[in-house]
Amino acid sequence: MFPNSSNLGRSPFLPKYQQQSTFTTKLPLNTPPTLLSHQQIIVRPFQFRSAVKERVVALQPETYGSVSPGSTSDTLKSFPGRKRQSQQSVPDGAKRQRIHSRDSDRAVVNQAVPLPEKWRGSFPSSSSVRSPVLRARGSPPLIGCVPPLQDTLFPDPTETRLPVPKDRLSQQVLELFQACQQQASDLDRKELCRTELQREIQLIFPQSRLFLVGSSLNGFGTHTSDGDLCLVVKEEPMNQKTEARHILSLVHKLFSTKLSSYIERPQLIRAKVPIVKFRDKVSNVDFDLNVNNMIGIRNTFLLRTYAFIENRVRPLVLVVKMWASFHEINDASRGTLSSYSLVLMVLHYLQTLPEPILPSLQKNYPECFDPTMQLHLVHQAPRTIPPYISKNGSSLGDLLIGFFKYYATEFDWSHQMISVREAKAMARPDGIEWRNKFICVEEPFDGTNTARAVHEKQKFDMIRGEFAQAWRLLQEKKDLNRIVPLKAAKQKR
Length: 493
What we know:
The chain is globular, with a radius of gyration of 23 Å. The protein is built from 13 helices and 7 strands. Among the domains are: about 120 residues, Beta Polymerase, domain 2 (2-Layer Sandwich); about 180 residues, Poly(a)-polymerase, middle domain. Helix content is about 30%, strand content about 10%. By secondary structure, it is α+β, with helices and mostly antiparallel strands. The strands form 2 sheets. It has a 5-stranded mixed sheet, with helices on both faces. Strand 3 and strand 4 form a beta hairpin. InterPro entries: MTPAP-like_central, NT_sf, PAP_assoc.
């Protein structure tokens, strides 16, 4: 999942304990050293097709900020007015050349701000850089259920694998999913911003890399989803109260000064995991940027595997997210459920059916989701996992009704914890993370409570009430309009 930078393809940098993942020993012999993700595309010209209109969108040579001395290519031209000129023709390879020009990733060392000695990580020196290795001719592709990320640049190949609806409610679920899911053009806008911001940030931290994470990549994004970015400065744990805040303060200063023409309203939020919130004026996307929250990189690809391992998962998750947003219980900053917690709740429900629709991927494929695996391997692992074949033939409509029934009548909120890692409801641990909490949803990698934001009984009662109401309305009349006005939801997208 390494971005398009000069750091691509370098030899793995080892953590202090020198621990190696077992994953590399289990790949097929002909597997190329680097499987390119969406953030590593250099194979073919950027011709993005709209999944709806099937037309090629002309890409404009947009630029963000200034370019370091000696790194300006012919295609790196300013973009007057910051607006797309739809009639202007640009060569197919223009954007590719701009992002991958031979000098565009040079780090200006004399402008770098070094970290204090005690904070410096073990990133390899620039002398170890080598180009990314593309798939060798004749090498067999990995066979798995998770499509390579480069495919998301074109009409989604998984569209043909969506379930065939056999009832009205299932048809409504599928139609809402298709109308509101993230499109290739949405992902491209976020990726363009990530690429340009990484280049600017590397002038301050030359060995850093910027990752696009969360719903933008995990398969559960919508057309209006915000972008989540993770800045990795060193591949080891970092003190979020001191180191991360120091780094983010420099990033915030960069956004507020040098990049102020392109970055709108940057804010440094000093939370448990501090972030910089900002809006990119070029892509018109809101972003949250954190530092070294590497769990977010790992769980992005765990969820991406769940998203594509069974074709009913993505439509069901997206509709639940739309429902929660419409009923205002999908905002952790206001004491309700985060989208991440909602996704885990849907996965847990599908794992705990009498005839499960999903397994525990971490139990079945521990080598693919090893929490100590080096980051440059994380995006490769899911592609080795085959699709999950369930004997449960329930329709999307029946599963949606069952989801609301499970949390309205069956799940014991007072004593149980939702665990996707174990694929079952577990007794709550007796720790500060869980004691006296209204909702407990285990983070699959670090074991924290992703629903800790629900700390008021009033908000918890409201959430439970919405689950019970949705179950009652859908049970009475199997019409998705009873819980999510479809016309308004499609227009909002």
